[in-house]
Design goal:
The protein has about 160 residues and is of the alpha+beta class. The chain has one domain: 50s Ribosomal Protein L5, Chain: A, CATH 3.30.1440.10. It has seven helices and six strands; from the N terminus they run αβαββαααββαβα. It has a six-stranded antiparallel β-sheet.
C-alpha cells in the first residue's frame, strides 16, 4: 500500500507545449514554418498542425502569428527527448544558468526562445532577441521551482 507521502507527491510532468513565432511581411512564411518544424523530431513534423493567425502591425504591415499546441503525451515525450538529445551542452548550461528568468512559478511555465534563423538551418540555438521561435512548457504537479529544475535535469534538458 502506498504511503500518504507517495500519494501527496505526484509525478511532475509537462502537460502542454506551445510553440509560437511571428512571420513578418519581409519573411517567407513557408520558411518560418520550416524553422518551427526543425524544432520537432522527424516523426512529429507532419503530425503537428501549425495554425496561422493574420494580424496587422503597428504601422499597418501584415504580421502572421504561427503557432501550435502539443497536448498528446507521446508527442510531448518525443519532443522533450528530441530537445534533450539535440540541444548542445552549452545551450543546456545557458538554460540552467537562466532558469529563474525562464520559469514562472505562478503559471508553472518554462520558456525557451530559439533563434529563428538557426532553426531554419537545422541548429537549436537559444536566443533572447526579437527574431525567435518561443517554446513554452506547462507543468503539472510542480509545487516548487526545484520540482521543475529536478525534472528538467532528469530528462537531460539542463
Amino acid at each position: 500500500m502506498a504511503g500518504s507521502r507517495e500519494i501527496e507527491r505526484r509525478k511532475v510532468e509537462v502537460f502542454q507545449v506551445e510553440i509560437t513565432t511571428f512571420c513578418h511581411a519581409t519573411e517567407d512564411c513557408l520558411r518560418v514554418e520550416h524553422a518551427i518544424k526543425n524544432l520537432l523530431p522527424q516523426e512529429l513534423r507532419n503530425a503537428i498542425n501549425i495554425s496561422v493567425d493574420s494580424q496587422e502591425g503597428y504601422y499597418g504591415n501584415p504580421i502572421n502569428i504561427l503557432s501550435t499546441k502539443i497536448t498528446l503525451k507521446n508527442h510531448i515525450d518525443a519532443l522533450l527527448k528530441h530537445l534533450s538529445t539535440t540541444l548542445p551542452q552549452i545551450e543546456k548550461s545557458i538554460l540552467k544558468t537562466t532558469f529563474d528568468l525562464r520559469f514562472d512559478p505562478s503559471t508553472r511555465r518554462f520558456i525557451i526562445r530559439f533563434s529563428k534563423q538557426d532553426l531554419y538551418l537545422g541548429t537549436l540555438k537559444i536566443s533572447d532577441t526579437d527574431d525567435v521561435v518561443k517554446l513554452a512548457m506547462f507543468f503539472k504537479n510542480a509545487k516548487r521551482r526545484n520540482d521543475v529544475l529536478e525534472y528538467l535535469a532528469s530528462i537531460g534538458l539542463i
